[in-house]
Amino acid sequence: MDAAIPSHPFRQAPHATLIGFFLGSGDRGEVRKVAAVVCLWSFAAGIFLAVGMALSTHWVALAMVPPAARPLFPAAWLVALLFQPINALAFATDGIHWGSGDFRYLRNAMLGASALGALAVLMLDTGQPQALVWLWMITGGWITLRALFGVLRIWPGVGQSPLALAIHRPSCRQDD
Description:
The protein is an all-alpha fold and 176 residues long. It has one domain (10-154). It has helices spanning 14-24, 28-55, 57-64, 73-82, 84-99, 103-123, 131-154.
């Protein structure tokens, strides 16, 4: 156990632990199976959450949204709920990369996606009536980039991915 960050929440995530275990044992095939199951279940959980959000729109608006803001709420809520499966996938890949110790890639992907997202927010015309919807669209684009970077590091394993499978290439040498 790494004494530097013993209580970090990601170190206790079950999928990160499984990823670390199978990487440590040299079984990259199992690592990728765990990653696939985690991504599938996370995406499914995001769909479940989106359905729950859709079904609770009215009640959430009544309980949490000031009356003056209620006309703006449904469209922004709809955009937020549509991105929930991708959001869940992004957080799943974060945990997978934490478990594999791929911190540098995760940092760089997060900084790249965040820089693009910040630029989009700076360009947003906050005076337009649908600014809140566009803010959630930008947030959705940001999380989509994070998920895309996370998935591409696993499948096919861009760069020096710890999750990339070693590819067996037959020798070109012919024995006489």
